[in-house]
Amino acid sequence: IMTTITLKEILTNDNLKAFFKYSSQFFSKFPKEYFHFIKTTLLAAKNCREVSFAKAVFSCPKCSHYIYRPVTCKSKFCSSCGKIYAE
Fold first, then answer.
1. How far apart are CA 47 and CA 10, in angstroms?
2. What angle do helix axes 32-46 and 13-27 make, rounded to 10 degrees?
3. Within 10 A of 11 (CB to CB), how many other CB atoms are there?
4. Strand, coil or helix: what is 72?
5. Other C-beta atoms lying within 10 Å of the C-beta of residue 72
6. Which of 11, 33, 40, 82 has its CA 20 to 30 A from that of 19?
7. What is the pLDDT of residues 2-54, one digit of tens each?
8. How many CB atoms lie within 10 A of CB 46?
């Protein structure tokens, strides 16, 4: 039986901590900006479309009704945002 694993399931906090711990020696050969960029990209992809992480709030000026929309990461690495770049 084949199961589908999403990128968000792979990018859990435990997996990211282990990746950063074990890859820090590898990235020490490169400028620090590389490691910072990779860390920022992975965290952005992990939190993409999470209302708890970042959201835009829209309100009606007449009735004060609020609508929350999640913010996307717009990264080529992200499985949902990267699809737009591929198309």
1. 12
2. 170
3. 19
4. coil
5. 16
6. 82
7. 677 777 777 888 888 888 888 888 888 888 888 888 888 888 888 888 878 77
8. 19
